[in-house]
Amino acid sequence: MTARWAGDSSTRSRRSTSASPATASSFLTVFSTGSPRPVASNLNFGAGQTVPNLVVVKVSADGWLDFSNAAGTVDVVADIQGWFA
């Protein structure tokens, strides 16, 4: 899933990201669109769980972020808490 961010490439966003309810144990990785997906996860969760976490991630040059789920399906909620250069 890709989401638009109203920032520029010098901006990092601080956001509350939640996964709910997952159909399988999995992990979510949030990263700058166009960059390779990192090997570390931002959020780990079990099947049926609702799990929040605070994520800080740099946005792409044109203001986009990618959200990658490793297994199953999950709803993702990402609320912007702030941003900084």
Q: Can you give a write-up of this model?
A:
- It is a single chain.
- The protein has 85 residues and is mainly beta.
- The chain has one domain.
- It is built from no helices and 7 strands.
- The protein has strands at residues 2-4, 12-20, 26-32, 43-45, 51-58, 64-69, 75-84.
- The chain has a 4-stranded antiparallel β-sheet with strand order 1-6-3-4, with no helix packed on it. It has a 3-stranded antiparallel β-sheet with strand order 5-2-7, with no helix packed on it.
- The radius of gyration is 12 Å and the shape is globular.
- The model has no long low-confidence stretch (mean pLDDT 82).
The stretches of 5 or more residues where confidence is low (pLDDT under 50) are: none
Query: Order of helices and strands, N to C?
Result: EEEEEEE
Give the biggest sheet.
4 strands, antiparallel
Strand content: over 45%
Q: What does the secondary structure layout of this molecule look like, with pairings?
A:
Blueprint: E1 2-4, E2 12-20, E3 26-32, E4 43-45, E5 51-58, E6 64-69, E7 75-84
Antiparallel strand pairs: 1-6, 2-5, 2-7, 3-4, 3-6
Write a compact overview of the structure shown:
The protein is an all-beta fold and 85 residues long.
